[in-house]
Design goal:
single chain, 230 residues, mainly alpha, binds zinc ion
Length: 230
């Protein structure tokens, strides 16, 4: 019974989280305010409550805006389904509390989308997610700080130097610090090495020599690390 309730919470939370993530990324990329009701991207008519229901709203409208009949992008629906799938898989592997997983995956989806599109992230979103997850797991964070503060500073020191030399984004350092506080510095080291290895491989395999956004690699390594190592 408990598992069924958890599955319902995870599915509803994952769909809502994916929808929220798409909305936040789209608004950030287009320099729009994060507040206010969503609107059709073609006719700018505000969406009503039933149009905002993840997946169902798009199906009812047969993937065309109810007012202007222009096609609705699959991007939001894809993000809703992907977030739900990742959250369910993480819960299956880690058994972390559903609320923790919903917030974590939604937060990572937003940071990943923003960094992939602009190579920057919204500072409010970065610190807001860190604060929210830190508050949710405050006893764990306080214990980690008490036991491993010097290890965390030792880990973040070289990263801060790299950020100062503009070889790493400051958001990458904050995210690594958040991972160290939430899940322990040893785990953060593993995530960092995994992400750096994957980023290096991606950099060598592609033809362009422009810099790569690092948060998608950190987020991927974090989720894989949680599923495999915890
Ligand atoms: Zn429209």
């Amino acid at each position: 019974m408990n598992n069924i309730l958890n599955l319902i919470i995870l599915t509803v939370g994952g769909l809502a989280g994916g929808s929220f993530a798409t909305c936040m990324v789209t608004r950030y990329v287009h320099h729009q305010s994060p507040w206010g009701r969503s609107a059709c991207e073609h006719c700018h008519h505000q969406l009503t409550w039933w149009q905002l229901i993840p997946v169902v709203g798009v199906l009812i409208q047969r993937r065309r805006c109810a007012w202007c009949r222009q096609p609705i992008s699959w991007q939001s629906t894809g993000s809703e389904l992907a977030c739900t799938g990742i959250i369910l898989a993480e819960w299956w592997c880690t058994k972390l509390p559903p609320v923790h997983l919903i917030i974590l995956v939604t937060w990572l989806a937003i940071l990943t989308g923003e960094d992939a599109a602009t190579q920057t992230v919204c500072p409010g979103m970065l610190w807001g997610g860190t604060l929210l997850l830190g508050t949710l797991t405050l006893p764990v964070v306080l214990t980690t700080v008490r036991l491993h503060l010097s290890f965390i500073l030792l880990l973040l020191g070289p990263l801060l130097v790299l950020a100062w030399r503009r070889q790493l984004g400051s958001a990458d350092v904050v995210l690594t610090g958040a991972v160290a506080l939430l899940y322990g510095p040893r785990f953060a080291c593993a995530v960092l090495f995994g992400a750096a290895g994957a980023a290096l491989l991606a950099f060598l395999l592609r033809r362009s020599r422009h810099s790569l956004p690092f948060i998608p690699f950190l987020a991927g390594a974090l989720l894989i690390g949680l599923a495999v190592l915890r």
